[in-house]
Design a protein that fits this description.
Helix content is 20%, strand content 33%. The protein has 259 residues and is an alpha+beta fold. It has a single domain, classed as Endonuclease/exonuclease/phosphatase (Deoxyribonuclease I, Chain A, 4-Layer Sandwich), CATH 3.60.10.10. Strand 11 and strand 12 form a beta hairpin.
Length: 259
């Protein structure tokens, strides 16, 4: 029987861009941010607080921020609008070198709180490999809100992601008390930095990261390498799925060589 081809690892990055402004909204830095994101060389980028068609004041020449950031590097992208304020909208976005087959934005807002959403994208991998599911997350500031949103996230995974499909969930979890891991474990999600290093990576503020707010969780995938890029965290992953008949799954996830 011919060997199944091994899937190629690709780089994943997550960053909250705060609608293109630096700390305390003193300066619009989206152009500098675009160069920084490009320099990482990621194949899949998860963005939070990214401006939509009606971007922030002072950025009229840019238009939709996710399109400006994608430019000619990431030909496929998806956007989920979460909030509109003073005629300007922002939300989550995914930029991808893989084709985006479809996307949906799950509203996980609570009454009286800031609107929040989970942007779920299905990406086409090379022939013979399972579709990759990607969910971009930005959770609330209240622990009670985050608990509700994490429960909704796990429910979305159970109902919208096939049990054997590779999945990456990344974004700004605002989880400074490290409660998310236990809530996401029942739906099979593992945080890559905690698995590799024993603890979550520091990611905020960007210049001198102290707080561990941003996360990258996977299921049916493994981290090949890792790095911290000052508020924008990324790693290499191989999306294998959970198919026990897949040779790559046997070799890498089950940890044995059956060739």
């Amino acid at each position: 029987m011919p060997k199944q081809s091994q899937p190629e690892p690709f780089r994943v990055l997550t960053v909250n861009i705060h609608t293109g402004f630096n700390a305390f909204n003193r300066r619009f830095v989206l152009r500098e941010l675009r160069e920084a994101v490009r320099a990482v060389g990621s194949d899949l980028v998860f963005l939070q607080e990214v401006g939509g068609e009606t971007g922030p004041a002072g950025a009229a020449d840019i238009g939709a921020q996710y399109e400006f950031l994608a430019d000619e590097i990431w030909h496929d992208h998806a956007y989920g609008r979460n909030a509109v304020a003073q005629g300007q909208d922002h939300g989550n976005a995914v930029l991808s070198r893989l084709p985006v087959l479809r996307s949906v934005n799950h509203d996980v807002s609570l009454p009286g709180s800031e609107p929040r959403g989970l942007l779920h994208c299905v990406l086409a991998q090379p022939a013979g490999q399972p579709d990759l599911h990607a969910i971009c997350v930005h959770l609330g500031l209240s622990e009670a809100h985050r608990h509700h949103q994490l429960v909704r996230l796990c429910s979305a995974v159970r109902h919208s992601v096939p049990a054997n499909a590779p999945l990456v969930v990344a974004g700004d979890f605002n989880d400074w008390r490290s409660r998310a891991d236990a809530l996401l474990a029942p739906c099979g999600l593992v945080e890559v930095f905690r698995q590799a290093q024993g603890r979550h990576a520091r990611s905020f503020p960007a210049r001198m990261p102290l707080l561990r707010l941003d996360r990258i969780y996977v299921r049916g995938a493994i981290a090949e390498a890792r790095g911290n890029h000052g508020g924008a965290r990324g790693f290499y992953m191989t999306a294998l799925g959970l198919d026990p008949e897949n040779q790559a799954y046997k070799d890498k996830i089950l940890g044995r060589d059956t060739r």
